Amino acid sequence: MKLFQQMLVAGSALSLIAPIAAQASDTINLEGLNNYDSSKSSAQRFDSKTFVNEVNEEIATLNGRVDGLEANLNNIEAGSFSDTTTMDGKAVFDFGAIDYSESNTDEAAKFHYSYTLNLNSSFTGDDNLYVRIKTGNHAGWMSDKQDGGYLSSANGNGDALKVDKIWYQFPVGDNHTVWVGPKIENYYMHAAAPSLYKPVTKQFTLGGNGNAYGASTDTGAGWAYVGDNGWSISSNIGTKSNTSCASTSSTGCTAKPSGSGSYTNSGLLTNETKTSWATQVGYTEDQWSASILVNQKSNGWADGYYHTETSDNGDIGNGNRTSIGLRGWWSPEDTGTAAPSVSLGYDTTSYDGVSGSAGDNSNAWFVGLMWEDVATADDKIGFAFGQPTTMDNESKDPFAYELYYSYQANDSVTITPTIFGGTDRDGNADGEDIFGALVQTTFKF
Question: By the 8 A CB rule, do 176 and 223 touch?
Answer without folding.
Answer: yes
